[in-house]
Specification:
single chain; mainly beta; Thrombin, subunit H; 3 domains; 6-stranded antiparallel barrel; 6-stranded antiparallel β-barrel; 2 helices
Length: about 325
């Protein structure tokens, strides 16, 4: 495998890379782990720049986390979070809007727009790039070469020290971000940053920032109900059409802590209790017949459910036999 080291890079370029690594990339401190890497970019929205923190999937809870303790340039700081959040399990990625404080001295990474021209989607001739990643709890830059950009993917030869996906990829000519590392192989693969931003912008429907809603259910399946389709999110007579595109709105379904593609029903394999958690980025307006005829629901938790925009709850629990709230 071809590898390129700092000797291929001019000293002034190395100084810029070092400055960017220290002021644009942070280490996020969480109680249950040592830290995870995050980095800051601006995303253009309605002629404004939206300050965004990118980090690992599911690291930030939009309902609970209002601040983050981070280390930037070896200094611990508090970053305030806004409500906007986007998570993508496939890319192992979270984007969250932050409340910008000029005193934080954050250097936001610029996006390389020119590299996405159709003419450039071909093999490269020793076009240098680098990845910022963790190295024994410190940050380090690994240098490499871009092999090609085809549609949504970027291929490159570069040393990557783990399978963790959240590693920003930069064009060494201008120190702008071009993608995120995804897989280790003969030639590493990454996802182009433009595709991530495109998906992120989908949650801004009609200019409204959408908060994450969460519904938790506890369903008790008895022996005679095993292998029977259990409806826990009904679409009775199309009363709430706003739920029909949940898959397109970053919906996540967890059954006993295992994630599944969203469906309004599931077929249990064994009797017993099933803990179900449904997360989705949508402002629900109509909840009529939402849990109609869900006779196996034992407990339901709507404490994180955003009801600000709901205008209809008619027959929301029609036919249910909920034992406790």
């Amino acid at each position: 495998m071809e590898e390129y080291y700092p000797r291929n890079v001019r000293r002034d370029k190395l100084e810029i890379i070092l400055e960017q690594m220290n002021n644009s990339v942070c280490k996020i401190i969480k109680k249950e782990r040592n830290y995870d890497i995050g980095f800051f970019i601006f995303i253009k929205y309605k002629n404004k720049k939206m300050p965004i923190l990118m980090t690992k999937y599911n690291l930030i809870d939009n309902d609970k986390d209002k601040i983050l303790n981070v280390i930037i340039n070896n200094k611990t700081k508090i970053i305030k979070l806004a409500d906007t959040i986007y998570q993508n399990r496939e890319y192992d990625l979270t984007l969250v809007e932050i409340k910008l404080n000029e005193k934080d001295n954050i250097k936001f990474i610029e996006i390389d727009d020119n590299i996405f021209n159709n003419e450039l989607e071909k093999d490269y001739d020793k076009k240098l790039m680098y990845i910022i990643q963790d190295n024994n709890k410190d940050l380090a830059a690994s240098f490499g070469i871009i092999k090609g950009i085809i549609k949504n993917e970027i291929k490159y030869s570069c040393y990557v020290n783990s399978d963790t996906k959240i590693k920003p990829i930069f064009n060494i000519e201008n120190n702008k971000i071009i993608g995120l590392h995804q897989n280790k192989s003969k030639y590493n693969k990454g996802i182009l940053i433009k595709n991530i931003i495109k998906d992120f912008m989908k949650i801004f429907k009609n200019g409204i920032k959408i908060k994450r809603n969460e519904i938790n259910l506890l369903i008790n399946i008895e022996k005679y109900e095993v292998n029977k389709e259990i409806y826990f999110m009904d679409n009775y007579d199309n009363y709430h059409n706003n739920l029909k595109e949940l898959n397109d709105l970053n919906t996540e379904l967890y059954i006993n802590n295992n994630i599944y593609k969203y469906s309004k029903y599931f077929s249990p394999e064994n009797e017993g209790k099933y803990n179900i958690k449904l997360k989705f980025n949508i402002n629900v307006k109509d909840c009529s017949y939402m849990f109609a005829n869900c006779k196996n629901i034992e407990d339901i938790n709507l404490s994180y459910f955003n009801t600000n925009n709901i205008i209809n709850m008619q027959y929301m629990f029609y036919g249910c036999n909920i034992k406790k709230n």
